Amino acid sequence: MKAFFKLIRWQNLLLIVLTMMLMRYAVIEPVISKLSVVLVHGQEGEVPLMLKFPWYDFVILILATLLITAGGYVINDYFDIKTDLINKGKVIVGTAIPRKKAMMWHNILNAAGVAAGFYISWKAGYFWLGTIFLIVSGLLYFYSASYKRQFLVGNLVVSVLTAMVPMLVFIYEWPALYRYYSVHAMAPPDLSILFYWIGGFALFAFITTLTRELIKDIEDFEGDLAYGRNTIPVVLGVLTSKMLSVCLIIITIVLLLLVWYFFLADRYTLIYISLFIVLPLFYVIYQLIVSKGRKQLHIASTMMKLIMLAGVLYSVLVKYIITWNLV
């Protein structure tokens, strides 16, 4: 059982749960509470918007996302046995868990995840949205089997799928809000602000994941080179890959400061992103510059993961900023 939980990266799955919960209750809920409508029947005057996607359906949405992600981790380790032996010196699939059993778990997790995805899409009134989970399941399989061996393709696939995690919360909440208030309100509310808030978190997830994937590719250079994988470090070289990573980090910092300056401009956000995101990003740059082996690269990769967590936890501050009108 311990090997199974390690195989499905339970820590990463917890991060997904945290991300989706915070997007709904620390971002979407306080944001819509500042929007108001006049109801056709009932309470007089303007009333604030409330979440309309049922919490139990939201739990199933999280479960579907976790199942698909776990299946992706299983198939990734299934195809990475040889390179992981070089890069990590140990594997789970083929030792603690037989290859045949790993494939069985992959099939079970994906089937359950896709089924849950179609079910929740049907409950939301848009059955076709279930194809998202089917497509993601296929992308994760082909990522492990082929895409991650191709130049840049694998990095982009993982980055886009990571950005989809916060977007899924918006994708399923927005129709429920619009459908309810378009019927029960005098005029449907403008929910575009939700897209900007959640889109900002999604963009941060995309660019930081892309940066981390590139750093991990540099870290795994030896194994990828030995088995002919056309990763960015193998094709362009380690030095160029480090320069690209630094450029992505600088872009991230610039975007964060621009968003703060033009849309927020509160001291609480500036203090938070400076201490918990910008400074750690500069530390990652330092580790990339001085790195001469896997140790510094692994530190940089781990730090990027912590930075991604800090980005998610910023949503807690968002809740208080919006609730207390601090912007």
Strand content: under 5%
> How large is the count of helical segments?
13
Shape: globular
Q: Tell me the structural class.
A: mainly alpha
Number of strands: 2
Radius of gyration: 21 Å
Residue share in helix: over 70%
> Widest sheet: strand order?
1-2
Question: What is the N-to-C succession of helices and strands?
Answer: HHEEHHHHHHHHHHH
End-to-end CA span = 47 Å
Tally of distinct domains: 1
Which structural traits does this protein have?
327 residues; mainly alpha; two-stranded antiparallel ribbon; 2% strand
SSE topology:
Blueprint lengths: L1 H6 L2 H24 L2 E3 L7 E3 L6 H25 L1 H7 L11 H26 L6 H15 L7 H32 L7 H28 L1 H6 L5 H5 L1 H27 L2 H24 L3 H30 L4
Antiparallel strand pairs: 1-2
Describe this entry's structure for a reader.
By secondary structure, the chain is mainly α. It has one domain. 78% of the residues lie in helices and 2% in strands. A two-stranded antiparallel sheet has the order 1-2. Helix 3 runs antiparallel to helix 5 and helix 8 runs antiparallel to helix 11. The longest helix has 32 residues. It is globular, with a radius of gyration of 21 Å. It starts with a helix and ends with a helix. The relative contact order is 0.11. The mean pLDDT is 92.
